[in-house]
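Protocol step 6 of 9: fold each sequence in the batch and record its structure tokens directly after the sequence line. For illustration, a two-sequence batch is reproduced in full.

Sequence one:
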Amino acid sequence: MVKKRAIAQIVARRWIRRNDMIKESSFGKFKYLLYEPSHLTNLENLPLIIVMHGSGEIGSSLSKLKAREPYISLNNGKFKADAYILMPQLPKDTWKSYAAELIKLINEIVITYKCDSKRISLTGHSLGAMGVIEIIEKYPDLFSAGASLSCAHDYTDKIKNISHVPIWFLYGEKESNYGKYARKMYEIAIKGNSDSKINAIPGYGHPIQPFWCNEKYGIFKWLISFSIGQYPTWQDWLNSYYLLDGRGMATNEVDKPIPDDIARKLGLKRG
């Protein structure tokens, strides 16, 4: 009996290794968690979803993210997604104030995992929902879709600038103010893109993060159903943010050299 139990434990451990993984790492100013859909045979050219948390998870301890969805359901195997899911942790302030750093992190993930650059989407809750709209407005041609959960501000003015991007607005039915914001923004968004949508979640207030992993709503499936056509490969996507000077030297938007490892991956020349 003991021998059979030991064999069963070995088999179980091997099975766990084949299941989806969540990696912990850091890049630049961000610590982050990355869900890798190892249940799929081919892990290249997959969509990338960036999940942006609310103010309660700001800090330097990833345990804050691990106590919330979508990490919980992704980690325990109750929910699987056919995409890489990046969960960065905001060190302080707002997502808008770290926009450039976030783009650099996305660049790194796209390069390392050869993600489908035509299917990079954003979703966030509360402060993170504000970040979804702020980041898409700042980089309006990079993201294929967005999902805004309990957005804590009325960004009607910003939605006018990004109405070409499909956005799903979700809010708790018991949340009157944020519901008003969502409805106002949706009225603008739907005029620019008929795929934009809105849902009030019955019986809920502000904390609606569990619905990221709710099969009935299918937020992640909805996000990865959209694509953009500007960048046929991940390399072209990166090149759109890193320019080459007249000598073929690699420089970025603030005229600082690209790190050597990234330049090598891109096949860029050094002086």
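Sequence two, same batch, same settings:
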Amino acid sequence: MGGLNSEERQRLEDIGFMTCMTLVLLGNYAQTGHFGGPLAYTPFNVAAHLIGPERGGLAYDYRRPKHPFGDKFMMAAGHSVPTCYALYMVLGQALERKFKLTGDKRYQVDPHVALLPIDALGFRRGAGALKTLLSDNGLADDPLFAQAKARGIKALSGHAESIDVTNDCNGGPSGVGIATAAGKAAFWDMAGAKDTPKIIALEGEFAMTEGHAQELKTQALALKVGKRLRVILSDNNAGIDDVLLGGVIDKKYTGYNLIDQWTSYGWNVFTLEDGGDYGQIVAAYEAMEAGDPSDRRPMILVAKTTKGYWPAASNGQLTPTVKQIVSFPSHPYGYKMNSDYFVALAGTFEERYGIEFDGIRKGPATSERERLIQFKTNIDKVMSVLDQKGLGDWLAERLVTLGDAIKDDRDVQFAKGSDPFLDERLSPGSLPREAVKVSVSNRISGASKEVSVALFRKPGEAAGGRRAISEIIKWMNHVTDSRFVTLAADLSESINVEHGSLWGHYDPETNPMGTRVKAAIQEAGNVASAIGLVSQSASVDPEQFKGVWALSGTYGAFTPLMYTPARVWSQQNQDSRFRMGVLHILVGHSGPETAADGRTHFGIFAPQVWKLFPRGQVIHLNFWDYNDVAPGYFAAAQIAARDPKVGIIILEVARPDNLVADRSQFADKDLLAASKGLYVIRDFAPGKPKHGYVIAQGASSTVNLVKILPRLEQAGINVKIISAISEELFDLQPESYRHFVLPPEAMLDAMVVSTGTRRVWPVRDLGPLTDAYSLTSDWDNQWLTGGLEPDVIAEAHLDPESIFKGIERFAADHAKRISAQSAMLPSAEVRSTSGQKVPVS
């Protein structure tokens, strides 16, 4: 503690200037990217990575940047990631340089982990293009590009991603990066980690006006994360197209005050007057580090910065004739290659360090080959500063010292034992078929008790699918020792997650074993906190997971508010270099059955956003019967726990307490049938003409369809009825089962009965006439009007009478339907492999 001495200040300023110059070179030669924002964050970024944890900086190991016990750095202001790329290159080069000089393996970094100067060529480029970038330009064997030999050139995204060395978020869209910070901090409280890791997150004032980011204010305070969360708010009053105060907000509204806003939300607010002064920055980091650990208020530093900051600028000038470009005009890198403004910036760096950049005063490069050579040459010119005044040696030693302090053997509860989500008691076949009482113990308080769990109910009991949600959560928490966390939008009781917690509401001070987080009506904030929780792991082995799974839920109609954070999470999970947890989205009160609440609450169209993910990366479950929930869910959980590609499970349930189905009347009587994704409720009657396949999904639609089974029998309607719980689970079944339930030819001979819409079918590849015969809530392309539940179901044409008439028409038109589809194929001739003409019709 105690501020900076002159040598430390000079070291930080030199590395900061190198970082600024490198990020400007990225923009100059890539001719894209962001400029002013990354420059403004650079002093905070550099100080955080170099001053050490005892002064409030990061505890981390550049050689193992994803070590679970390292502090978490979040470039939540995603567009400002060039400052991170640039700094990571400087740090990586310092270690590589020292390793080559000494051969000492303490300085060795796996090139697949490090960012190196060669990666500057990958800024905003795709991995595919980079594979041949050098060879296409005759440079593959040029010594200038020798670093590419080790592992090629890394593709560097335009916005921050969690694969970027120390960065731990995918930052950028709508504040979703910063919004996960509270969950990340809360995880380490739940995990039993004393004091560290901490989370340092950088974000700007414009981004903090976004909904997701605004909800962080309440989330972090509710979770009582205290000084473990430290947000650095860059306050330069500059956005993309305008200023905030005096632009978006009229300057006459003097009450719009950022400090007051955060103080009024209960945060511990620090301030800083000059975000370009390393002395002030280090003092602010030290002040936060000195904060009382018993003060559970999250911390924020509101720091005055300059968008377009430049280390050598003075009084708004780069040179006596070149004015510094600041505020929102500096947002993009909008200058031509080797423009006068770039040359002015570069000239200040040349003057300070006695170097000269190649070719920058001769106009733009005239060919791709010339661009690449000049780009890498000038990046290396910046890196040559490491050879001056012992800077490179100092930096390498600082990085090794920081890294050596990160130990594998911390006493963290979650780090002990194996992954609890791999327990065989969570497999569908191991689930108790009858209601059971299980003994549970609180490892912190020592208390014990018995808890009742009913994963299945008797036929005829009044219990809708939503009633089973709390039971599967209870069973999950029983098996995993309370590792399944729920955050619902002040609807925990309504959507049936309230009673899933074995030890009640979570509180880090009084009840850390609780798994039900008290949450405000903040769908975006809640899911972001859930993402923060599942993004962490206490496992040193990247192939093992030691953390929590989390669920966030609300009415199906409102779940699109959760989609953007979940989409970004799915991308993060896909690319992660270590195993992470599983996010659960509970699409509660789905379908038109939320009638009494009004049509604003209908979950008809809205839940279908949860289909908008790459195949295989989510498992979507749509339950209509209580006894489908446990086998369907635990089949999905068994897959997700073992397949790192699956990062999200979606559970869709409706409100009505329908009677539990009598499966003795079904063709597939297996109580675990839902674990197969699709199963047969009624098969074709043998020896009679087949009238087609009816695919049912949703609560009222399937319940009312089952009610008319005797009537279909009496009418001689010979259709096969299939319950569609999950296409993803069905896809994983053996081909023999899939072809038995829904053979390929069935796709041209099927109708759908669903509480969803005609826009998104329960299964893919259905035929061209499916829509003409299907029964869905949007059958007339209108919004339903509302009323009591029976009124709405009838209006949706999903009452028993409407379903019978629809299936009757479908069956009666069977021959016409097949003939019409055949007629869609024009007559043609093709030649077989033997050369013979074969007619096609």
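Proceed to step 7 once all outputs are recorded. Observation for sequence two: The chain has 26 helices and 21 strands.
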